[in-house]
Amino acid sequence: xxxxxxxxxxxxxxxxxxxxxxxxxxxxxxxxxxxxxxxxxxxxxxxxxxxxxxxxxxxxxxxxxxxxxxxxxxxxxxxxxxxxxxxxxxxxxxxxxxxxxxxxxxxxxxxxxxxxxxxxxxxxxxxxxxxxxxxxxxxxxxxxxxxxxxxxxxxxxxxxxxxxxxxxxxxxxxxxxxxxxxxxxxxxxxxxxxxxxxxxxxxxxxxxxxxxxxxxxxxxxxxxxxxxxxxxxxxxxxxxxxxxxxxxxxxxxxxxxxxxxxxxxxxxxxxxxxxxxxxxxxxxxxxxxxxxxxxxxxxxxxxxxxxxxxxxxxxxxxxxxxxxxxxxxxxxxxxxxxxxxxxxxxxxxxxxxxxxxxxxxxxxxxxxxxx
Length: 371
Known about the structure:
The chain is of the alpha/beta class. It contains 15 helices and 5 strands. The chain has 2 domains: 48-167, abc type-2 transporter like fold; 174-370, no CATH class. The chain has a 5-stranded mixed beta sheet, with helices on both faces. It starts with a helix and ends with a helix. The model has no long low-confidence stretch (mean pLDDT 81).
């Protein structure tokens, strides 16, 4: 019995060795995925961008800003002159937190009979970032006030009042941040999987040659194979969006038509990748393995698990070539912030360019394989 089992084991190992693509997948992917996840998730939330509106311009206000900047979680990116600049920076995602110091801050802080006010405005679109920035600012401001009191160790309660505002997600509900990303990732998986088996299925069934001898052009063949993936991807998007908005009460503050147009570009980008996978895969099993490998890579780089700004620089640069990264930034901004094209055009331009590039490469690759 042992000999028969051993012979079967040897046969399976020989077959596995002959399929070099599967062997490489089983050996290389786990190691590369571990390195990527460790590199992207190894850091903590540090040096979140902070802006300051210092209307007092006193010694006390400058000391307050320096204490905030000295925290590990916050880093002063710039001073602003008007509250409208703060709104624009928070809307565009260029700042995680803003601190507003009124004109009489130093005077009130020095007078034990008066109460000084400081306003903290946090971006709650990313609940984890918003909570981290808000907590760091609250602690730093109270510590700075304690240092500036006579004697340096008196309690600041009653002398300093913090007025905290959380924009876009006042309750810091993590679902508001996670569910839009979940929409993008599910649409990504479905669109990529359907497109990746478009030609491998025909090759396995032996009907690809029949298609090639029909009076149809290569471009028409690619378009016909891509259309079902586009339809299925957009249908899933509409269903998931309705579930998230109506069922889980995640707001859709931006334009639905704008978001739908962005989704079309995103699905087309993934269809291009799927066609490339379909062109190099001999079987549907290989195609789905490629999809799984690419999904793990994109999940790591896209910001689905960890914000790209918290990754090492080389991973940040690599993530710029992931359509999923740009789409997640877009869907979160449109749904939670109500952002439009003027604020999002860099991500929109990158997504459209990646869609055009992947479709062109996919069509060129499959045309060469068919010829």
